[in-house]
Amino acid sequence: MTRSSYLSLHRHLLWGLLCLSLVQASKVASAETAGYLNPDLSVSRRVEDLLARMTLEEKVAQMCQYVGLEHIRKAEKRLSASQLKANDAQAFYPSLNVSEIGRMTEQGLIGSFLHVVTTEEANQLQRLARKSRLKIPLIIGIDAIHGNAMVRGATVYPSPIGLASTFDTDLIERIARATSLEMRATGSHWTFSPNVDVARDARWGRVGETFGEDPYLVGELGAAMVRGYQGTDFSGPDKVIACAKHLLAGSEPVNGLNAAPMDVSLRTLKEVFLPPYQRCIDEGVYTVMAAHNELNGIPCHGSKWLMTDLLREEMRFEGFVVSDWMDIERLNDLHHVVESDNDAALLTVQAGMDMHMHGPGFLEPLVRFVKEGKLSEDRIDQSVRPILTAKFQLGLFENPLVEGKSAEKVMFCKEHRALALEAARKSIVLLKNDHILPLENGTHRRIFVTGPHADNHTTLGDWAMQQPEENVVTILEGIEQIVSDDDVVDYFDCGKKLGDLTPRLIADAAKQAWEAELAIVVVGENSLRYQWNEKTSGENTDRAQIGLVGRQLELVKAIHKTGTQTIVVLVNGRPLALPWIDENIPAIVEAWEPGSFGGQAVAELLFGEINPSGKLPISFPRSAGHIQTVYNHKPSQYFHQYRLNPTGSLYEFGEGLSFSKFQYNNLSLPEQVEVGQEVKLTVDVTNAGERAGEEVVCLYTNDVVSSVTTPVKELVKFCRVHLESGETKAVTFEINTNQLSLYDTQMKPVIEPGLFEVHVGPVQGTFQVMSGHNSQTPSVAKTSQKISKD
Known about the structure:
- The model is unreliable at 1-31 and 772-790 (pLDDT under 50).
- The protein has 24 helices and 27 strands.
- α2 (43-53) crosses α17 (377-393), α9 packs parallel to α10 (215-230) and α19 (414-427) packs across α24.
- The chain has a six-stranded mixed sheet, sandwiched between helices. The protein has a five-stranded parallel sheet with strand order 4-3-2-1-10.
- By secondary structure, it is an alpha/beta fold.
- It folds into three domains: 55-289 and 316-322 and 369-409, TIM Barrel (Alpha-Beta Barrel), CATH 3.20.20.300; 428-626, 3-Layer(aba) Sandwich (Rossmann fold), CATH 3.40.50; 662-776, Immunoglobulin-like (Sandwich).
């Protein structure tokens, strides 16, 4: 080659490199000035602008969620490869190390993470995502079920079953609001809450994660949580998106075991299990999680009828659906409805799934299926649109990072501590009181305290990680703080674990109880997931029997036998069968799992500093053989009686005692109403006791004669009323006749004319619904997610 030709070639190469640099610079400039990065544009325009710039791989990546890097490091130390497959709480990826997941994040191949519990890691992951071509931020999810309790140092509120006992929608909305602030302060934007499963089987370990057995109560409390988490449109740096779960009917498995099959009629689905989801959708819930179980032979994660026909088309859901933990893969290896994980990915997306929780093996097959024409790119866009919308609406494109000091200002702050104490006080249910409570302080008594749960953190419940000792008040600590110097508190440590109780320890406890004037025994179950091997309740911890675990009942009996006046305090996340305790112990306190300040609240109740106001959101069976025991059963349920055993529940939904006595009088209601009209009812409630208190006023109805069977009574309204001693208040309820509808023999929603009974406390009345024919209820209005539009 001549020198001139060499120079000519060199000039051409330099020119080519210069042109390439100019093209790359142009692309960078284009990205920097792209419409989707302009916060002044509407969310919908930004989403469409970004979608148009994304490759197919980048789109599918938004549908992929992984567990956090620190979670992976810890799980690798705790789990073997064989243990990994069956574990629903911890995870790592044998085919990927932490560095490789970091590189994937930089390449824009991951759209979401979960189990990220520190601000530092959240910021680290967001910085990696900002290095990707389009700088799309991550959405980080966490199981913030009753506070952001998976994070150390968070405020832990009572478990949902305890919150449900408050019957206080305003309180629950405030708790969700406070939770969203603690989540955003630690880098999370998406809570897998509320759980709006209707719990009808006490063997099922996740009862404590629910709001109980009544569809109306579950729906109202779930909607309150959605309002608290999301606000009106979940926009800005202080909101999170909510997730209604688990779709559908996994809370009444055939054998009580989580993820076991569920076979149920369409009628029961629409009467019992679906109404809470519809209520949350009406409130604007932005995500829904599919359930582990199969429903009538179809795994929920592969059900087009469930995720598309029902959820989106009939119920008008407009957000996105996320899978539960590895349940897409279980279409293959558990349910055997497909031959491979790749086929499982195709089936679930065709059915309506939008995001995979969690891990690899989802992106590549979906991209290939699109390229092969088995799946359209439009279907991928349908999933990606709402995911991107959430990221824009939450403000993550502008502010993906969390200020370093923000967690210190928000976590366990004064306002949140006060809220947790208020919730604990309102959540405790006094089940029995034979004139023993409240205790009189300063009576020179020796008070004996014992039981596995007297002085440990089981009061935190499931979905809580280990919290600082100084952030938790145990029941023993609460009692010690409240008693006067004139009283002596003797504590006997019979072991912190339920399996620690031995005959020798029980005998020693009874010996010490002989010397006391009063014994407080704290028993129940353990839901703590950081004590997984000791758990007796909570996620994936189901039981064939629902009495006290181990020798706890022996402990109670031994102390009662001493003749010392005995109080039993229960710490548990589900109903327990306690017939002997009910028959023999004069005072029983259901504390549930009352959270950070549960011990203080229990002590305040015992010594009369607060007046108990909690009501049961779920009935207590007498035994596992009495399941299903629900208050809103059909008329024929107890037509016959059990041989040799009592029939019915031990404690029924809505029960709960007070130190006050409330009287109901002067129920006023119209004689007749037309379909579509409001039914206005008023009742006078009087506090005839000597101290101020709060009463949960519940309104039940019963359709006297109907074309299909209806419950003997059903909750339609409730409220809390504060009354001073001797005070009377007129409580007014308004119900629309649409609330009285039923599904007829053709499964069409109708309001049938006829007589309806009304029950408010001990008083009742009737009114007539007037119409010349069965009147179809109005169709469900399409709900708005309140996302800003052009």
